[in-house]
Amino acid sequence: MKIKKTNVALPAIHEMGRKIQQLSAETGQEYLFLQRGINSVVNIELNEVVKSIDFNSKEIQTYPPSQGRAELREAINNEYFGGKTDISCISICGGGMPGIDNAFQITDVRKIYLPVYHWGNYHNAMKIRKIEYAEYDSFESLNKIISDIKDCAVLLGDPGNPFGNKYDENEIFAMIKKLNDNGTVVFYDSPYRRVFYDKNDNFYQRLLDIDNLVILDSFSKSLGLSGQRLGFVHSKNAEFNHEMAVRLAFATNGTNAFAQILVEKLLTTEAGKKAVTDFKTTTVAEITKNIKYLKEAGFIANEFYHESVPIGIFAIVNVSEDVLLENRIGSVSLSKFTLSHKQEASKYSRVCVSVNHNKFVEFFENMKAKI
Question: Are 263 and 276 members of one domain?
């Protein structure tokens, strides 16, 4: 059998997860799983929410519409866009990655520009799809090449991965608008934003006047539902939305109906809203304490936060992946998040800060006493 090979390796977090599970089993010692990109402070409490779901209903036991259930898209419109967009602009996908992958394929551009430090799945998806990509250092560097990227796209993440950093709202809005006015497509990938914001956040509403823009979001982080694999894509371009619906139809025949109904309940019912609020409140409190600890203990890599601030769910520490592993802390080397700065980045690691604060401090204090 002949195989069309991607020549792309599985994500580094998979290998690190396997490694520390094996080490834990062999040594009988506890390891801190900070290589993962999930909120692990608490689980979202779903028991009350699922009581209102009829598992024998046609809505769950038949194929959902390819673009997603209208009820969920309306709930997203109200929650994220203040009811000011049209649900035809919203497509439901099986998590953030399928949304990103399809958006990259649909948009006809010469090249996609990624931040120098970025989530590796971006360039891996483009490598598989044979899409040309390049890197940019900063907003300043984008401004310098603005005239050369009219027929290109730029990916912006805020809060970002791997840094967990947040830019000033007006600064990032101005950058998006400048790119749009230049004729450059913007992919705004923001699956972490709603961990820290609620319905009163109007940033997506501000973006509704921008045409060359695709908003990518998911419920894995903001609702703690990584396992349900559900996200959404927003675009004002009718042709883009048609192509997205077609691709989702042939790839999935409709995205998981149960996950769609579950998220709809979380966004619209009293029990759901309480579950979301409780989950976010506890999660953000622990994230905030963990970042504060890293700063005070001298572990945060301040050199990466000159123009932004770390808010989570990740942070960069000035300790290598190997040293962290020696101290039973899982992480991913920052070198796995860049194509051009690997040697320099190998001195640093990305850690997930969305874990129990006391356990987080315990492991880092043990390491601090040794190094």
Answer: no
